[in-house]
Fold this sequence. Notes:
Strand content: 35-45%
Order of helices and strands: EHEEHE
Helix content: 25-40%
Structural class: alpha+beta
CATH architecture: 2-Layer Sandwich
CATH superfamily: Lrp/AsnC effector binding domain/regulation of amino acid metabolism (RAM) domain
Radius of gyration: 12 Å
Amino acid sequence: MSVQAYILIQTEVGKAAGVAKAISAIPGVTISEGVTGPYDVIMRAEASSMEDFGRTVLSKVQAVSGITRTLTCPVTSSDY
Length: 80
């Protein structure tokens, strides 16, 4: 079973487009888009496990310049 999550991202002023582009290049990221509202970028990603998600996706997202805050929202399966 794979792990999927949306990550809501706040960026520095004027950095949303660059952040969305940088994030879209991270393996495991399935979508990364700039939005308006309290968050500047919303992304969705997946990995084979929560440990793998943290190691391969979250650690790389947190290293992207211009991000000030993130909120990770794991997707729950309706199969439970």
